[in-house]
Structures are given as C-alpha cells and as structure tokens.
C-alpha cells in the first residue's frame, strides 16, 4: 500500500467572472501551483494517482438538503449577471457555470480517498480539490465553499464502512464552522479546529468560533497538538511555515493505524500553499519532516487558548481530568500535596546553558534526504527477522583498530562480541551523521549496553552533532563526565523517582499503564524534544527497559519529527527480532501498532509528571501548554 493522490484537471475550471477583490484569491492557480510543485519534487510520481469522480446527488444529500443541491445544479445554465446576483446572496462566494460539476468532483475526490484507505488500496492520501468545503452548510454556500467535502466523506465513512469514531483535524486560519454545525451533536465525530478568532473580529465573525483558537506560529501549532489534540485522539481511539504541516501530518499518523485522509481546504498564497502541500505529501509517504526553525516558544495567546479549551473539555475527557487545567505560566513552589518541590534547576549555570542552546538553535542546519531511509545492524544473521523490503541489512563495520580505540576506556567492550557490535554501530552511526542513512537500529550485547551508549554519544558529538537527545530506558545512568553544556539532553525513563539534576538531565519512572506512558510521551518527551530540536536522537533500550513492542514503536515514531528522522535505536540482542521488526517499520515511515484500549495513568505517575513539568517549564517553554492545576 502507498499514498494516494486524488485529483481531476476539471477542478481548475471555475473562476471569477466579475470584479470582486474578496473572492479573486480563490483561483485555479491554487491547484496548478500545488500540482506543479509536487511534480517538480518528484512526489506525484511516488503516489498512487486516482482520477476524481463526481459525487452522486444522493451522496451530497448525506449533508446537504435536496433543495440546496438543486439550486447549485441550476447554476450550470445561468448567465453572468444571474450568477453574480445569486452569489451576492451568500457570504464570500462566487458561482460559475462549471461550479456544480467541479464541486461534485471535489466531494467525490474525498469519497474516493476514504474508500481507497479503508478498503486497503492505499495506506493514506491527499485529495487535491477545489472548491473547498469546510465553511459550507446544509443549505448554504459560504466562504468559497459549495459542498462540505470532508463532512460528506465522514458521513460516508460511517454509513458505508461502519466507522464509529472519526477525527477531523482542521488547521486553517478560518474556522470551519460548516463541519462544526454538521457534527456538533454527533458523538462519533471529534472535530478539532484551530484558527484565528480575535474575540469575534476575524472572519467568519462567529461566537461559536471561540474556545478553540490558538496562535498561528510553529510553536503554537505544536503546543496545541501535544497538549490538547493528541491526548484526546488517543483516548478516543479515532479511526480514520510549510515545514510545520509535515510535522503535524507525521504526528497524526501515529493514530488510527496511519489511516490519514488529507483534503485541501484553504490556502491562498500560492508559493506557501504549494510548499505546504509538498510537505504534507512527503510526510504521508513516510519521509522525515524537515527540522522546524527554532527556538520554539508558544505565545501567550496560544497558551491562553489552550487553557480555555482544556478547561471546557476536561469534564468530558479522562485524559484531561488527569492532567492540569490551566497553563503553568508561574510555576507554584509547592506540589498538590503541599510538599515543597525539589529545587528547580536554575542559576547562572543553567542560564548560561540555556543561552548556549538558543545559540545552537539559531545555527541549525538542514540535511538532505539520505538515500537509505532505515538500516539494521545485527551482530549475527537472524533468519527469523522479517524487515520491510527497503530496509537495509548492514553488513559492514568500522575498522577494528578504530573500534578498539573507542573501546579502550571500557572493560565491558574487551570481549570480541562486544567489539564486533561496537564496530557495526560506529559504521551505522557514521552513515547517519554523513547523510547516507536516515535512521538505524543496532543490536548490542546486554553486558555492553552502558559502554556502547557512552561511545555512541561521544562519537556523535565528535562527528558534528550539535544537539544530541538521548532517551535511555531501563537501568542506564548518564555518564558522570558528560558535560552539561547544552549539546546533550539526557532523559532517563525508568529511574526510581522523578528528578531534574540539571536543565539537560531529566529522570522519570516508567509509567505502569498505557495512559501514563502516553502522558509521558505527549507531556514530557515530545515537548522536550521539540524545545531542544536535536539533530540526532539516540534511543537506548537497556536492561529491564520494560517496553513492549507497541510502546517502543510509538516512542520511535514520534521522535522522528524533532530530529528530521535522524534516530539511532540501540536494542539488546536478547530482544532484537521482535523489537527490531517493529522499530524498523516505524522508522521507515509506517504507523505504529495500537497500544490497545485507552487506560488512565496511575495517580503516582500523574504526580511525577506534574512535578517534573513544574520544575522544567521555566527553561523548556514547550512544556507550558501542559498546564497547571487550578
């Protein structure tokens, strides 16, 4: 299965026939510019091309009244003056003799995409359509929108395919009130929109657009996703700058087995629209998203909006009830139980380290897409390990004398087996750092895990990694002589207690339930990762790491974004076949397996995460959207 691209050239036919500055931006070039850029980037050729069909009038009737469908049908025979007069009855709308045909194609393209994904013909896809649809209502065109393409597709998915939970994510500068009106009383559809509201002073000037508006910067989008959308989406088990669109699309693919159907709505700056479409398609194809320009700091209005939505939704969602309900802009000095919190990392040393991090983020460099997406380095051949066809089985190793030089300070690396594993890891790590491989998995002996991880960190830093994020699971301690200089962020998951020895050293117990693990990933790991913006991530599954395959896969999948896909996973040989298989699939761009039914976090895990966030928020701004108890 691949990525579907649904399109029809007839959708470029409608155009404005009279002068109207408000409507002239909805033009045919919106589609041609996007399609041309997809072709220039070689992305269209990698997709499964589907020619859009017209939606039937019965399918349009899933959302729209028969009278309204008949009215739009009648525009095919109207003259210019009649079309202009009819258009004037609606807000920001123009009709053209080809509008009915093209609006049916737009709705039909969304239906085709849903069918292709749910029937297994495609893994995911994009419908490149116009006119857009999310403002249109049951009996009214609105905001360039004629038929509500996404709402029709969602109703179709429910009625034809029997889906019971559908998530609609609407990122647009304008509120898609048409979708909200269709599903506001339907518990089977979760509609998540964020847009400009400005207290009702931004189009469409509706009071109902309130309570889900956030700022429009990269950091604001990421904060809303991490602290609001993804917790709700995981609990509900939903089915179904341009760089930021790639990251958001990539994060959505951890839901619903990766069954993501993207449908073009707005976007009227042609260059930005074309780039955003390309980034979305790249993410759907499984390519790593390019790094976001940093540093990322959510703005005050975004945090206030996130707080408002969390407070309004908390009574309905267990995942929000277990978390905080107001943004922690001024961290409290005491925990909920009244105990003093541990000393917060700060002072001149911490401020200097934060300044170094900010400087490093300003110097962030982009890496071209490597020729090999994922490689696996095993110490010995394993016939039971089944990998995706394009995953490289690495056989080469670094020169033995080079491995011996790196192994010399570590007694546990003196054995031949450990030295062999180290040589293979060094060769794989160099391939990632040199841009030949995007991500990799290395099997290592359990007795040498600590030493090999230490070598991997130092090798990465010596070979040009500016910021290295190490996620250590199990019984793995941070090397004592690793400097706190802002170049390495160490996160230990599996420690005995939550602790923050420094801004760049964080430890938390491994949550015992899936809900706690999700809260840890969304409320701590990802905000730290996007705040740090590493150019290399090391994930080490050490002794007693306690992770099942789906949990390890989710962790690896979400960490692809912050580092532009540059991840190296270290896996103990004893657990290699199953873990290597599932990790290889997600690092290659596939969706992680489900964690199973949603389960809440244990109270002790909630407390540990809350205390950690309060200590870290002053330095790590992406954590602020998680909130504070009211």
UniProtKB/TrEMBL annotation:
Keyword Hydrolase applies: yes
Keyword Zinc recorded: no
Gene Ontology molecular function, alphabetical: hydrolase activity; protein lysine deacetylase activity
UniProt domain Histone deacetylase: residue ranges: 25-221
Key words of the record: Hydrolase
Pfam families: Hist_deacetyl (PF00850)
GO biological processes: epigenetic regulation of gene expression
Name under which the protein is recorded: Histone deacetylase 10
């Amino acid at each position: 299965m691949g990525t579907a691209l649904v399109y029809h050239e007839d959708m470029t036919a409608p155009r404005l026939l009279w002068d109207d500055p408000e409507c002239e931006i909805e033009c045919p070039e919106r589609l041609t510019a996007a399609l041309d850029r997809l072709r220039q980037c070689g992305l269209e050729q990698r997709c499964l091309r589907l020619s859009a069909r017209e939606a039937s009038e019965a399918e349009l009737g899933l959302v729209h009244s028969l009278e309204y469908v008949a009215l739009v049908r009648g525009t095919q025979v109207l003259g210019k003056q009649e079309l202009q007069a009819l258009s004037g009855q609606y807000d920001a709308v123009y009709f053209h003799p080809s509008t009915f045909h093209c609006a049916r194609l737009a709705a039909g393209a969304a239906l085709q995409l849903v069918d292709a994904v749910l029937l297994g013909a495609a893994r995911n896809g994009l419908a490149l359509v116009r006119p857009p649809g999310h403002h249109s209502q049951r009996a009214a065109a609105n905001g360039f929108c004629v038929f509500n393409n996404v709402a029709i597709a969602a109703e179709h998915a429910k009625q034809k395919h029997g889906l019971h939970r559908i998530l609609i994510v609407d990122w647009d500068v304008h509120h898609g009130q048409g979708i909200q009106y269709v599903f506001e009383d339907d518990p089977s559809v979760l509609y998540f929109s964020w847009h400009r509201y400005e207290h009702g002073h931004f189009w469409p000037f509706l009071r109902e657009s309130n309570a889900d508006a956030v700022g429009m910067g990269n950091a604001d989008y990421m904060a809303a996703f991490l602290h609001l959308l993804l917790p709700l989406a995981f609990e509900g088990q939903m089915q179904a700058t341009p760089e930021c669109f790639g990251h958001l699309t990539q994060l959505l693919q951890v839901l619903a087995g990766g069954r993501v159907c993207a449908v073009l709505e707005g976007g009227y700056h042609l260059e930005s629209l074309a780039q955003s479409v390309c980034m979305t398609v790249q993410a759907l194809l499984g390519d790593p998203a390019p790094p976001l320009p940093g540093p990322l700091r959510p703005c005050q209005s975004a945090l206030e909006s996130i707080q408002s939505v969390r407070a309004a939704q908390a009574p309905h969602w267990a995942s929000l009830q277990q978390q905080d309900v107001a943004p922690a802009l001024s961290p409290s000095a005491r925990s909920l139980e009244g105990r003093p919190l541990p000393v917060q990392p700060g002072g001149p040393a911490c401020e200097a380290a934060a300044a170094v991090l900010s400087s490093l983020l300003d110097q962030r460099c982009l890496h071209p897409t490597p020729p090999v997406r994922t490689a696996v380095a095993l110490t010995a051949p394993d016939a039971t390990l089944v990998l995706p066809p394009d995953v490289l089985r690495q056989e080469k190793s670094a020169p033995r004398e080079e491995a011996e030089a790196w192994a010399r300070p570590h007694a546990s690396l003196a054995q031949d087996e450990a030295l062999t594993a180290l040589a293979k890891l060094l060769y794989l790590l160099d391939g990632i750092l040199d841009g030949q491989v995007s991500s990799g998995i290395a099997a290592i002996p359990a007795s040498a895990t600590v030493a090999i991880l230490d070598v991997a960190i130092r090798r990465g830093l010596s070979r040009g990694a500016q910021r290295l994020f190490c996620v250590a699971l199990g019984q793995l301690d941070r090397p004592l002589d690793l400097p706190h200089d802002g170049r390495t962020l160490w996160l230990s998951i599996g420690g005995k207690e939550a602790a923050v020895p420094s801004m760049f050293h964080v430890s938390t117990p491994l949550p015992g339930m899936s809900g706690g693990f999700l809260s840890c990933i969304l409320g701590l790991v990802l905000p730290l990762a996007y705040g740090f913006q590493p150019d290399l991530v090391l994930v080490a599954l050490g002794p007693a790491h306690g992770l099942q395959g789906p949990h390890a896969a989710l962790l690896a999948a979400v960490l692809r974004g912050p580092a532009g896909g540059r991840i190296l996973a270290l896996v103990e040989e004893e657990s290699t076949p199953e873990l290597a298989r599932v990790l290889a699939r997600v690092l290659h761009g596939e969706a992680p397996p489900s964690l199973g039914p949603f389960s809440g976090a244990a109270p002790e895990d909630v407390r540990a995460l809350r205390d950690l966030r309060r200590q870290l928020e002053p330095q790590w701004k992406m954590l602020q959207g998680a909130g504070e108890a009211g």
